[in-house]
Amino acid sequence: MTDRTAPDYDLADGLALDSPEQYKALFEPTRREIVSLLLDRAATTSELAELLGKPKGTIGSHLKNLEQAGLVRVVRTRRVRALEAKYYGRTARVFWFESVDGAAGEAARQLRQAADEAARVVDPQEQVMTGAVRYARIPGARAQEWTDRLHRLLDEFDREPRSGEQAYGLVVGLYPADVPRLAVDTAAPDDSGHDGAATR
């Protein structure tokens, strides 16, 4: 298989959703699947319908909805016999959104979906997989810095040339965690290297 950059059409780096219509269009399960698939390459209504196992009319309606919201567009056409096939692509690599309306709970939904997918791996010993959770008590500003770093990592992964047969999922998440906290250790060493108890 030849290396190629994904997707196979030009698009903006990012688009901030700014209307109820865009939120309503994007945060519907089938439409989320469509825009996710289009990040790999442009596709026709027929291709998407076959892959998703849904009628062409249903996928066509979803594409029209996404197109009217400015989230997908026709990126090229090709003559197939007497018909002109339209290839749809996203308008941006990343759709930025606030956690409101239909997007409320979206991050948690994506983490649950990733956990379900990982659990379905038939033989984890034969897969390149890793998973870990760490907890740190940090200020909110540092949490935002980590969030930005994770988004940059996702973007790098999105841009990886498509040359393999196996798809891999990269999961990132940063969230407030309700974990127990140890009390302050009053006997902990101070900066001088001595323990906290005074000796006389």
From TrEMBL:
Keywords: DNA-binding, Transcription, Transcription regulation. Residues 11-115 form the HTH arsR-type domain. One of its GO terms (molecular function) is DNA-binding transcription factor activity. It comes from the Bacteria. InterPro entries: ArsR-like_HTH (IPR011991), HTH_ArsR_DNA-bd_dom (IPR001845), HTH_MetalResp_TranReg (IPR051081), WH-like_DNA-bd_sf (IPR036388), WH_DNA-bd_sf (IPR036390). Pfam families: HTH_5. PANTHER family: HTH ARSR-TYPE DOMAIN-CONTAINING PROTEIN, TRANSCRIPTIONAL REGULATOR, ARSR FAMILY. This is Transcriptional regulator, TrmB. It comes from Nakamurella multipartita (strain ATCC 700099 / DSM 44233 / CIP 104796 / JCM 9543 / NBRC 105858 / Y-104) (Microsphaera multipartita).
